[in-house]
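Saturday, quiet lab. Running sequence design on the structure tokens for the scaffold JK sent over.
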């Protein structure tokens, strides 16, 4: 079975709006891995609600969809906090390897022999979500769990031989696994990183580095600081955040997510399966009512959501909920013809015209 990076990227893009750089990087890395070729680990950084977990889930779904891809590789997605807990109790890396082993059994079936399960374990794909939760320092305090979790991952990333206890049902013995074949894709919002880098280049050590540009907006001349994290982020900023240099150096690619604009948000409202609109549509359908929304209404909802900073696309759900709430108690009564159309007027009624 051959997988092409372009097809994989296209498929992921049906689920992930925008973020084409991240989608491409991940698609290329996965393609190499599925072909048994070496590829570097990826660290993804993006604000909350920008699509990091959505991308990971999309990959999981694509890879678990048919038996052909399952035969090629095993993927697990873990929350970094769980690794923090494990690092306090057990031997480093056991949890990751065990999760892969168990998933390989699910993917390949009970009949797959131990050598195949171990092969899938040592060459598995490991998604670590919320990796910023295992920062080694919070403020000026050391975070022991975080430090240990980073160390345990490091052990897996660099060691040729890691002990692994095979579960009882498969024999229970201890084996040594070469973990160099693992592919790690980690993601985190790194709350506060944006501000600290901005401060560094405006008022901190590198003040003056960021030069204002003159822009004309509505006939008014203004000075603006064109700050984008991707232009200024250095490894040192992540060390300061509490990620150890050794840990970071095991990631070959650093992928920054874009902040979502109004048009992206409009797309997400309509396309994301778990968007407020699509969830409401399913509820209304269960009440025998078809829910529709006009392009003007979509635009307004997206515009209001875009003004709520720091929660990305999650703002959409809150804003849309406000719009749809008055119709939820008795949908049938609100839609005598069986169709409820949300137009700009209904959005204005719920949110107030002009502003939120
Ligand atoms: N790029 C995107 N494409 C499609 N849907 C998105 C995108 N970004 C966000 N969403 C929607 O917003 C919700 C939250 O996004 P997601 O869980 O991917 O955020 P995140 O980047 O992982 O944020 P956090 O750092 O807070 O975990 C998703 O359920 C999805 O509906
Ligand atoms: Mg997330």
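Result came back. Writing it out in full:
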């Amino acid at each position: 079975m051959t997988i092409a990076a372009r097809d994989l990227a296209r498929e992921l893009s049906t689920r992930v709006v925008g973020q084409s750089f991240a989608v491409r990087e991940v698609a290329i890395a996965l393609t190499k891995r599925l072909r048994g070729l070496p590829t570097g680990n990826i660290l993804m950084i993006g604000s909350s609600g920008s699509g990091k977990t959505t991308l990971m889930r999309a990959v999981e779904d694509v890879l678990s969809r048919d038996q052909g891809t399952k035969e090629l590789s095993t993927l697990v997605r873990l929350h970094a906090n769980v690794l923090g807990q494990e690092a306090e109790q057990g031997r480093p890396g056991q949890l990751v390897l065990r999760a892969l082993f168990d998933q390989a059994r699910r993917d390949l079936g009970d009949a797959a022999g131990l050598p195949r399960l171990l092969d899938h374990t040592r060459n598995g794909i490991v998604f670590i979500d919320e990796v910023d939760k295992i920062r080694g320092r919070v403020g000026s305090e050391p975070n022991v769990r975080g430090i240990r979790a980073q160390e345990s991952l490091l052990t897996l990333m660099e060691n040729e031989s890691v002990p692994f206890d095979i579960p009882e049902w498969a024999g229970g013995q201890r084996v040594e696994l070469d973990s160099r074949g693992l592919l790690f894709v980690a993601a985190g919002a790194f709350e506060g990183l944006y501000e600290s880098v901005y401060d560094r280049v405006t008022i901190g050590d590198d003040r003056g580095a960021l030069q204002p540009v003159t822009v004309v907006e509505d006939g008014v001349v203004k000075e603006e600081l064109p700050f984008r994290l991707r232009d200024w982020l250095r490894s040192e900023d992540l060390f300061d955040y509490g990620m150890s240099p050794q840990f970071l150096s095991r990631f070959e690619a650093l992928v920054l997510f874009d902040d979502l604009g109004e048009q992206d948000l409009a797309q997400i409202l309509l396309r994301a399966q778990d968007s407020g609109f699509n969830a409401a549509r399913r509820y209304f359908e269960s009440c025998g009512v078809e829910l529709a929304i006009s392009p003007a209404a979509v635009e307004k909802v997206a515009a209001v959501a875009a003004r709520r900073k720091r929660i990305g696309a999650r703002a959409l759900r809150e804003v849309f909920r406000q719009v749809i709430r008055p119709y939820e108690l008795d949908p049938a009564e609100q839609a005598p013809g069986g169709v409820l159309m949300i137009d700009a007027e209904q959005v204005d009624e719920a949110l107030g015209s002009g502003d939120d």
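Notes for JK: The pocket of magnesium ion (ligand 2) is lined by residues 52-53, 129 (CB under 6 Å). The radius of gyration is 24 Å. Ask whether to fix the surface positions before the next round.
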